[in-house]
Amino acid sequence: MTSAPVAVSAPRIELAAARDIVPVAASVVPFALVIGSAMREIGVSGGVGVLGGGALYAGSAHLAAVALLGAGAELVMILAAVAVINARLLVYGAALEPLFRGQPRWFRWLGPHFLVDQTYALATARDDLDEPGRFRRYWLVAGLVLGAFWVTAMAVGMALGAAIPASSPLNFTATAVIIALLAPRLRARPQVLVAAVAAAVATTFSSLPNGLGLGAGLAAGIVAGGLIEVRRR
Amino acid sequence: MSAVVLLASSVVTWLLRVGFIVIFPARRLPTGFRRVLDHAAVAALAALLATALTREGGPGWLLTPSPVLVAAVAAGLVAWHTRRMGLTVVVAVSVLWVAQLLT
């Protein structure tokens, strides 16, 4: 019996995942450093901070929770803020749900832990993830690599504390990732219109607390997309 | 207290993540609603970008020339033409750094 040499020549989805995620993971390092530094400032212990970073796996909500905690906010207030900031993950989950069908139970419950803006955008940008095993391997590699960078950088941020500058050109890397994920999608008029509406509404309501402006922009963009769909038919 | 806050925040966030995947699978949602979700990625990324640029340059970020706006436009052009993530990030940070030195 000889085994067919199919696996050798087949494209390695793990490598593709690593290629997609490493630039993203490197680019969120400055953000994780800032969060680590902020946690050190309010006296969060190293173990709690690092484990919390891996468990929460969501930067904006993490930073908001730390800031509110430092300001002495009640737990309920902090959780409300986290829920509002991360409400968009509900929408991402709905959009990715077809890829989580036909998966083992453990993956359906635990895999979504790696759902963030960047992994969602990367997965929707690929058209070769319909096969369940393939998607699962792509998603786990991307999520674990991103998590490793994220948690390590947060630990370094906690160790360095106030030595991390709150503002530097490097902090722009997270925004640059968003631009890199968005710009290639703006090749047809409907997408440009959706983006313009979402950006305009998010800017208009940016003074609202807890990422409500972001949520308003997302909702407005989706509604605009819906109106475009209706007019097409 | 910080451990409780981070743990509870993690649970809330995880519930949002699995909400439409396992708790109430999105395939039970109306078809029209699901089709509209195709636009969610572009809407979310544009809203995230606008929020970040507003934080840097205020609500008038699009109309006021600033190093951040120049860097964002440069990054957008590189990303649109090359689709290369690493190159886009390097160009964005380099242009921002130079533009800040010049202003």
Blueprint of the fold:
The complex is a heterodimer of chains A (233) and B (103).
Chain A: H1 6-9, H2 13-27, H3 29-41, H4 46-56, H5 59-70, H6 75-85, H7 88-100, H8 105-110, H9 117-125, H10 132-160, H11 173-182, H12 189-204, H13 212-232
Helix pairs in contact in A: 2-10, 3-5, 3-10, 4-10, 5-6, 7-9, 12-13
Chain B: H1 2-23, H2 31-36, H3 40-57, H4 67-82, H5 85-102
Helix pairs in contact in B: 4-5
Structural description of this entry:
- The complex is a heterodimer of chains A (233) and B (103).
- Chain A is mainly α and 233 residues long.
- Chain A contains 13 helices and no strands.
- Chain B is mostly helical.
- Helix content of chain B is 78%, strand content 0%.
- Chain B contains five helices and no strands.
- Chain B has helices at 2-23, 31-36, 40-57, 67-82, 85-102.
- In chain B, helix 4 packs antiparallel against helix 5.
- Chain B is extended, with a radius of gyration of 19 Å.
- The relative contact order of chain B is 0.06.
- The mean pLDDT of chain B is 93.
- The interface between A and B is large, with 99 and 69 residues.
Fill in the keyword field for this structure.
heterodimer, A: 233 residues, mainly alpha, 13 helices, B: 103 residues, 0% strand, extended
- Sheet-strand content of chain A, in percent, reads under 5%
H-E string of chain B: HHHHH
What is the largest interface, and how many residues per chain? A-B, 99 and 69 residues
- The rounded distance between the terminal residues' Cα atoms of chain A is 56 Å
Mean pLDDT of chain A: 91
Oligomer category: heterodimer
The average pLDDT value of chain B, as a whole number, equals 93
In short:
The complex is a heterodimer of chains A (233) and B (103). Chain A is an all-alpha fold and 233 residues long.
